């Protein structure tokens, strides 16, 4: 059985969020070209609030990532489509793989207003004898816009 070690990011305390299981090969931004011959674009920019403490995930491969979620308001058109649920925000899973980004994000706390940029990635992994997948934003740049009041 493969084990993934999880721990709160350095300098944080509190409840752990569910970690992001990962493909040991790491994230990949490349993919096949669009069938119509045109190049595709996979750029994401999120501006929202941290929902919980970032979690450091040690993968069996030896890779380390920081997993966190950013809550963003839904666009007006999307809000109308989900009027029955009343959901007005989405909590987007994100991960950071580079050491510099991991250190920066480890100091973030719930409620901080943040901006992250990256690419949407779908990772496949084995868990409980089944193949599973996870869609998340793999962060390439990140910054704090406004700190939440100290808890």
Write the layout of secondary structure elements.
Blueprint (H helix, E strand, L loop, with lengths): L4 E4 L35 E7 L4 E4 L5 E10 L2 H6 L7 E8 L2 H8 L6 E15 L2 E17 L5
Fold and architecture overview:
By secondary structure, the chain is mostly beta strands. Strand 6 and strand 7 form a beta hairpin. It contains two helices and seven strands. A five-stranded mixed β-barrel has the order 2-4-5-7-6. About 13% of the residues have low confidence. 23% of the residues are buried.
Question: What are the defining features of this structure?
Answer:
single chain; 151 residues; mainly beta; five-stranded mixed β-barrel; 2 helices; 43% strand
Total count of strands: 7
Shape descriptor: globular
Largest sheet: 5 strands, mixed, barrel
Regions with little confidence, pLDDT below 50 for 5+ residues: 12-31
Brief characterization of the structure:
With about 150 residues, this protein is mainly beta. It contains 2 helices and 7 strands; from the N terminus they run ββββαβαββ.
């Amino acid at each position: 059985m493969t084990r993934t070690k999880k721990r709160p990011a350095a300098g944080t305390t509190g409840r752990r969020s569910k970690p992001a299981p990962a493909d040991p090969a790491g994230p990949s931004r490349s993919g096949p070209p669009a069938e119509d011959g045109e190049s595709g674009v996979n750029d994401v920019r999120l501006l929202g609030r941290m929902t919980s403490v970032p979690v450091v995930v040690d993968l069996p491969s030896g890779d380390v990532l920081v997993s966190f979620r950013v809550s963003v308001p839904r666009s007006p058109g999307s809000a109308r489509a989900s009027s029955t649920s009343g959901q007005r925000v989405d909590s987007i899973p994100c991960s950071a793989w580079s050491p510099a980004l991991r250190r920066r994000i480890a100091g973030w706390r719930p409620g901080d207003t943040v901006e992250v940029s990256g690419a949407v990635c779908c990772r496949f992994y084995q868990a409980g004898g089944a193949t599973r997948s996870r869609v998340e934003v793999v962060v390439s740049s990140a910054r704090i816009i406004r700190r939440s009041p100290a808890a």
